[in-house]
Structure formats: C-alpha cells, structure tokens
Design brief:
By secondary structure, the chain is an alpha/beta fold. The chain contains 17 helices and 12 strands. A hairpin with a 2-residue loop joins β4 and β5. The longest helix has 17 residues. The N terminus is likely disordered.
Length: 378
Amino acid sequence: MNKKILFQKIIFFSVLLILASILSSCVSAPKDTSSKIELNDAEAILSSMSTEQKVAQLFIITPEQLTKSCVKSVPRRYYKDFEKCPVGGFILFYKNIKNPKQLKKFTSRLKNVSVVPPILAVDEEGGRVARLARSKHFSLPKYNSMQAVGETGLSQNAFSAGQTIGGYLYDYGFDLDFAPVCDVNTNPENIVIGDRAFGSDPVLVSEMSGAFLNGLHSKGIKGCLKHFPGHGDTKGDTHLDYVSVIKDWEELKTCELIPFVDNLKQADCVMVAHVTCLAIDDEVPASLSCELITAKLRQELDYQGVIVTDGLNMGAIEKNYGSGEACVLAFEAGNDILLMPNDFNAAYKAVLSAVQSNRISMSRLDQSVLRILKLKGF
C-alpha cells in the first residue's frame, strides 16, 4: 500500500472520535455514525460529514485564504483557522516555499490540520511553470520547456519528465500536480500557453501528455489534464480577462480535444479553462458552462472523474462574476473542485447558502464530495 495513503488513513482513524469537538465556526458537528467505519470506505466517510464539511471539501485554496497572511508553516496560532473550515485541499506557490527542510515540515503539518487530510497540490509543469524547480533554494532537475520535450518526438522523454517531477513532488509531500498541459499550441499569437504545450500536433500532444501522466503515476502523484476544452488557439490570457474560442465542437474534436479524449480513462482530474466557446455556449466561460462540462465532458465524452475549475481568482471570472456567484455557477455547471476563488469566505458562504436553499441539491453535493474523497485515496 502507498505509504502516504496508509498514513492518511491512520490519521483519519485516530481523530474520527473527536471530530465534533475540533470543528467550529463555519462547520457544524457531524452526524452520528457507526463505530466500525471502514477506512477505505468513501461512502461511510461521506455519511459522517455535515453539510458544512461537505461544502468545505469542494475548495482547493491557498493557505493564506484561511490565515489572511502569508504562510510557510503551521504554528499553533493558525490551528483554529484550519480547523474551522476543513477545505478539500491547498495549493502552494513560491511564497509558501522557502527551502527543502521548511517545505517538508510544512506539507507534513498541513496533512494534519483536518480530519480528512487535504489534497496538497502545486503547478509543476516543467519549464517556466515550476514552483519548486525554479526556486533558487532547490537543486532540482529543470526543463527548458515541455515544447522542447515534445520536439524530441520521444514519448519516453515525456514519461521521464513526469517521473522526475513526480518523484520530487512525492518526496516533498504533494499529492496532485496540476499538469500535464494538454493544450495544442496552434496559435502563434498565444501569450499564455506557448511553450508550456508539448507542441502544435494534437496526436503528438496526446502521446506526450499521456506519457507525462504515466510518469507522475509511477511515483505516486496524481495529475490533471488542462485546460479543457483547449486554450491553445487563443490570443488572450484568461488570467487578465475575457478570452474567446471560435471553433465549434466538431472542429475542436479534430484538434484541441484529442489529447483530452485520448487520456480521459487514466486521468485523475480535468481542469476546465475560462475560455468562452462562442459556437457552443456564448453566454459564459467554459468553466461555468453546463453545456461544456455536463453535456459534453461528463455525458458525451463519458468522463466520470474529478473536474476542477481553473483558478477562480483569474480576471476572466473575478472581473465579471465575483467570487460567490461564480462558485455557485461553476458547481451547477458540473465542476467538483472550486479552485482559489478570490474571496474564499464569500464563495464558501454562497455555495453553502445555495445548498441550504435547495438551489444545489444534496445529492449533487454528495456526488462531488464522493469523487473528491476517492481522489484522496479513500
């Protein structure tokens, strides 16, 4: 058994009996459950959760979104911040990372801040997006770009990159890498994807992405196919504001969708971009589109794994929707994990209110939380 998963299960068993007493503020006590809960039984864990705890599980945020100050450790004064909202996971950035010793201690303590251990995620694509490898405090293998890996034409090089990155992420306590980039870089004016992609040939990108993901898996790290339905044929940057795609669904199938479709069966999760697909759903970005997420990705492509939004603090969302309504819309559209809303407190309250008012059904909430628990290894 994976040592990390075993450790998570031991932690869960040891603190289950005091669940009601350690949670306060934004969560209420869990319902009474049987004293004989199987540790690998996600359904049993789900049944032990209150509505507030379930809603908290939907979010992956930065630690600062709970502590309100930059965090590189978990001192005792922060325990109450983490305990009161046991979120589904944390994503770490350069500001959270000081040196190897600090990072290992930090991730170890973060694993213990709530009853169901949080997912620890990072953007470590290789190339210019690599939070650990690009830090001057770490002596880790560096890659010029995934485009350079793609240019070799050898999928074993992509596997090796995933294996190398997965190896050191596992050593430093991470669970999930928001990689590989499955975008097909077909637009030379693209300012946000570029050499982050393996190339401009969808078949090559598909093979490389799958190999990279297999490399991560070989080291016990989960991966995320991004940015569905494709961010490669765009000019703008959704970090800044609205970005559109003009291709219709059939056209996307011949290019942008190929790396996703080919790798969905082995995907741990899929990240949805904030691009607006004008020919499919011109009302909202893909990340808020029921047509693209539920009708296309879930139903037509038959993907049953975890779906996560791109960062909800990005300009394409925050400038046009605000944190609360954006998260409700994103969840209604079919996402399971809501990544980094700009105002976590407002977002949490908005989703909880939507559940309590039956705008979001309990069965829909349970579906997502169950997927998240299974992603965590339960």
